[in-house]
Amino acid sequence: MNRPLLLLDVDGVLTPYGTPQPPAGYTEHHLFPGEEPVRVNLLHGAWITEASAVLDIAWATSWNDEANQLLAPLLRIAPLPVITMPPAPFHPSDKIPAIAAYAQQRPAAWIDDLHTPQANSWAAARSSPTLLITADPTIGLTRDSIDDVMTWAKALQRPSG
After folding, report:
1. What angle do CA 119, 69, 34 make, to 5 degrees?
2. 20 — phi, psi (to 5°)?
3. Is there a cis peptide before residue 89, judged by omega within 30 degrees of 0?
4. Which residues have CB under 8 Å from 120's CB, separation 6+?
5. 64-73 residue pLDDT tens
6. Among 52, 70, 76, 159, which residue is least crowded by beta carbons within 10 Å?
7. How far is 33 from 55, CA to CA, in rounded Å?
């Protein structure tokens, strides 16, 4: 069986928003002139690296290639494959065709802060194991979420018997 996928959003997952101060552990970086600073937690890079031992990880974000150009160096991770999203702005459900095409029949976990009813329907209709984890955009990615994804992926790789 192919290794499971982990599809990672950025805004609201790796870069929380919606609060005046960044959550504990985050530092702010001015990556886009004229826009709010991007909040980054170095622990996320370590968690992504750890998760890569059991999952193939790809960006599933409107950042597209900028995730590798701007965010990966801050997280101290190697560039990841990019699932190209439509030009922004787009409705969150517009991610589904690109994600479905990328995931094909592989088991897939998708961490996003904006899973739509269409995303839940897509996940439920898949014949391959699918895990959706919805991040709180004011908190971002948590250790519990990464642990849940890795436990899920490891369980898929165990021989049944």
Report:
1. 85
2. -65, -35
3. yes
4. 132
5. 999 999 999 9
6. 159
7. 34
